[in-house]
């Protein structure tokens, strides 16, 4: 490292160029394409859940197509208070309706990312925070199904996994494409060395293991 300011700037530029991930996997096309696919799946599942909710509302007590057994039961989850936590003026609103709204936004953002249109940094940061909020909400609902309701909804599980992949892709794009945080050399090195692939794989496997350990024998009974 030199004592001259000009050379300090040059060194910093070289360091940033070294730590910045390169290759197709770290480009806007790939990261936002994965996000788009995951968001589209989550959007479709939200529509299905909304339809199932309306069907159950019209025919209380009726079994749904995804009622497999006592544990794998959509109707049991749909009839719990956790399925409609937003209440206003005596009315309750199914979570799936909010899923449609949220995932429509994420699909739109993914399309914007694919077009490589520059967005303000505050917008990119708010998008990531929104993705984090969606993930936390999905995990809370899954934990309620596993440990409180003691029933699982196949569509809800699909939504949880697609939201997880969506957040993984969104985090990748935020750090590498949008370069947030601006001085996050360590974060970009994490992606450049492909540590994210190992962490994401362990993450998905851990979710599957938790579900199987809790309800594995009952899922296939």
UniProtKB/TrEMBL annotation:
Highest taxon, organism lineage: Bacteria
Membrane topology classification: Multi-pass membrane protein
Compartments reported by the entry: Membrane
TM regions (residue ranges): 30-51, 96-115, 122-140, 146-172, 193-213
One of the record's GO molecular function terms: oxidoreductase activity
GO cellular component: membrane
Keywords of the record: Disulfide bond, Membrane, Oxidoreductase, Quinone, Redox-active center, Transmembrane, Transmembrane helix
Domain Vitamin K epoxide reductase: 28-174
Family affiliation: Belongs to the VKOR family.
Protein name: Vitamin K epoxide reductase family protein
